[in-house]
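Handout, page 2. Input:
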Amino acid sequence: MKKTIILFSLVFSLNACNYLDVVPDNVATINNAFTMRSMAERYLFTCYSYLPQHAGPYQGDPALNGGDEIWYYSYIFTDANPTAFRIALGEQNITNPYINFWDGTQYGSPLFQALRDCNIFLENINSVPDMTEIEKRRWSAEVKFLKAYYHFWLLRCYGPIPLIKENLSISATPEDVRVTRRPVDECVTYIAELLDEAAENLPEIILFELEERGRATKPMAKAVKAQLLVMAASPLFNGNPDYAQIRNHDGEQLFTAQFDNQKWILAADACREAIELAHDAGHALYYFNPSLSVHPISEVTRTELNIRNSVTERWNPEIIWGNPNSRAQQIQQRSQPRVFPDAAHQTATDGRYAATLKMAELYHSKNGVPINEDLQYDYTNRLDLRLATDDDRLYIQPGKETAILHFDREPRFYASLGFDTGRWYGQGRYDDTDNFYITAKAQEIAGIAAYKFSVTGYWPKKLVNYLNVASANGYSIQQYPWPVIRLANLYLLYAEALNEADGVEDDILYWVDQIRERAGLNPVKQSWSNFSRQPSKPTTKAGRRDIIHTERLIELAFEGQRFWDLRRWKKAEDELNKPITGWNIEGITAQDYYRIRTLWNQTFTKRDYLWPLREQTLLENNALVQNYGW
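Output:
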């Protein structure tokens, strides 16, 4: 077995063989790991420990900082090393790739090492003497789920990957060690089968919640399968002519050259199965219960909390998978602007996690359609100034001037973004008559300060729990497990898959309308018919596609989905070649502040859709081939 580990490490250039967190007498042996239940459980948790840090504000999950949703000021590198952000800056490379999940370097989890440890667990769990067969089957199913997820994550990053179905034996030949990348369709089939196998013996719900929340369940397995098959059916992987030349050295083609609509049908079936199972397990879209508040709140505030709390309320019924090993603590502190005037409070929060102006423009108007389509929205003059009145107080500070862009927007705009003059509900104030408002111009409370300001003038409010409170003693944070998969995500995946599979129009829009209703918007058809310059848009497949894509980008903004969606849709070449912009945060007056400033001219080419393999890895295993363009 030890020879197996050595061979595998040579192939993938993994870290040292530290496959147990804690081992008796510091002796790393398989015999110790599976001699009793307690030790096997520690090995089980070691398999979980490789999960990417989904809530890492700088490192861990490239989707939070490697795209175009979030930006930082240029000299942040003197304070931290936001590795994923370097991907957004276009600095990805083949010498030492950032967030390298293949080799486990540059803040990437060593996922091939994780797969090795998962295989060791599955090979040995049945030898543990003091466990029941039911427990062994459940733990094996959990590790199969993890094994499938790690393969899925690698596939999403790199495209075709080697499939680590079992570890190499001690009799492996040099040719056996030089494993090759497998075609995308083969990878997808294997991962889907593994998830189905895992689901058979996973619980539908966690019974012992205090001890076991976050461990794999049947709804989690089926939800990941739905994500997998939607990804496989999407343009990046389904008949992509750009990658037709990616072949193994023997000429084996790794990407399918022909589009196959059957993949969308399979994806829709997987989404439906995942949703039905989630419903059966008690999952539902989150709605805030006003009786939980000690203060009377308006319908506006209730809708805001419907949206914010669907992400930030611990273990709410919408969360299909929350990752307790990736808690939203630092990311909340860095998404929170300063709202208190005294110095003691100012040091408690950070506020450097800046949402980009393009994200502010993405949200719909109050009429539920894009602002550039709305017949009633003053899109041409959106950058001009307007004075807020008392009627605006639950959104914008009365008596203050701000951009027209900030008026007459949908509830998700105000629930998801903080901005100059905008209301920040919470922070110890829960009465609608006593509100905090952000003041972000240069000489104001949330304005420029060393390392603690938004470079764009926006903050991702939806990531901050409204019960957090800054004080002279620090920042009291309501931590929550990062919501890896919400039910809303599944609804929108299903709508997308049904549309691409030529489903029935009303069935498709039903799932979108469920999300919109929770967000305080009218159904799609009603909104487009009454307010859009393109009233027939929901009646065509292409029109619905655009509507569904936009709904995903809005509903799941700042949650690590946009990064992957733009890639699988092959839209990244359009969106990630646009300038990153924000307000002129050095401005003192409203006239000076509300001028657009370009922060970065972002670039993205076809090669950037997939991660590069490190040069050293290709030298160690010459059977591997590099990705397109690298």
